[in-house]
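step: validate -> pass
step: tokenize input -> pass
step: predict -> running
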Amino acid sequence: MNKLLIISTFLPFYIFCSCEITYDEKIPLFGDLHVHTALSLDAATQGTINRPDDAYRYAMGERISIQPYDENGNALRSSKLSQPLDFMAITDHAELLGEVHLCETSDSVSYNSLTCMVYRNFPKLAYFYMNQRASQSAPLGICGENRELCLEASIEPWQEIINAAEKYNDPKNDCSFTSFIGYEWTGARYSGSNLHRNVIFKNNSVPSKPISFYEATTREDLWDQLNASCTSDCDYVVIPHNSNLSNGLIFEDPELKDYQMISKREPLIEIFQHKGSSECIDENDPYCDFELLSYADFGAKFLGSDDPIPKESFARYALSRGQALKEKNGTNPFKIGFIGSTDTHLAIPGATDEATMPGHGGAGKSLRDKLPKGLPDDIEFNPGGLAVVWAKKNNRDEIFQSLLNKEAYATSGPRYIVRFFAGEDISLNSCNEQDAVIKGYQNGVPMGGTLENITNKPTFFFSAKADANDSNQFISAIQIIKSSFDNDDSVSEIITLHESSDAYDLDLDKCVVNGPKQKSFCGVWRDENHSPNMEASYYLRVISAPTCRWSHQLCMENDNYCEKDQGNIPKFVQERAWTSPIWIEKN
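step: predict -> pass
step: emit ->
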């Protein structure tokens, strides 16, 4: 029988102090590593005029104006975070970076071209036409031979991204905010199968230009060209996102020679953002049915398709597939950790509150002229998630190392604080021990880690604390998801450690949660079914009590925001956190 010891307490809350202080324990840092500004075509053609500088000011707690704007250029909306972020990266699309700059620079040789006139006067048409060309790696005529004009034009916006990151990295010299230089590689295949990846650099030693889908048409090409151009002190991670829109292609088997490279360069995936969840699709797991899109890729979204969504598009499949490949070839190429982010196209990183959902763009909607009569984004989209890392200091070196180590987790927006350890000698009384976290590192591994050649049953210590600043967020369930590969078969097992969903009642008229109001939880679980000859991965999933979805809240505020046919869009959601897995492996 699997042993479970649970105590409803939580470890001490974390006080963030000066960067001069060295922490005995790592602290949770909340960030957004997927942010678009007016430098990205799909943001600019939807009315965004905010630049990287504005996005950083927003992340640090300032209120900024957002689209749409009236005829006098006055913003009709604004936005402000309830809590500043701890870290952030601008990840504007490398593709079309130069093209947008040419079309917006009045003295450029391309400014009066037909393409640029369409861009400025018919933004929605430009959105689809230019994005379609980029997704096919097909150059626009304004770029000249071999795209030399657009490559040259990309240098200035790329430098703007670099300068903004340098300006806002630890601006108060108190380690309260960290910025990273980055960009998005917008790869695609076939009818629009998403292969997109964000590239995050460790420091300010970066290539002279971002490497786009035009120059690198596969993930392998991207790694090779980054390795060639990322020299000296340069280092980077590549983070795939929206595997849910990849039609199963993001997790396609790499060539054997690339196993080590994918493990080194792609240690994480973005499991949640405004275009849905990429955790799982499983009719036997009701919690998989959370912000799932109804289409398999972008082509199916815009053109329609009855094709089923493949399970190969989701992280849980990748975990099992990685174990199967290790059984066959000796190396697991899919030891992936989890983060969340927003993928905002309004330059508002971290804007994940359901009650103030401003939309994040990426919906193909132009809002240049007037405030929309309908919803601020496609109804199936959501406010996005956050990336959380455990680090000893809020600086580039520490956060980057945590990303590499996968000591990170994702949330669907709320600021959950989650711990997860595994080891042979984890105390069953950990929740009552003040030094439980220290012992967790000494006697085991944290989220993202690997236990090798254990002889005893693995024991897991976990704790979760709901968002302290959200009076409507409570914990209703905690589960461990175990993935293993046995006798040529992938097996997923859901271990429910705590479940109180039935105890909560959501008043849909007032959007108030009634129930036990449990804010924290701590427990220890031992896997008595583990065999020394079996390899497995385990990740923790923390589920909140039901709260009103953004679309329902807008509908209650104003009937004009109620769409007549909302299909399968629920009125409530159960926010959550997903830790990076812990792996149990043979040597």
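step: describe -> Residues 192 and 299 are 5 Å apart (CA to CA).
step: cleanup -> pass
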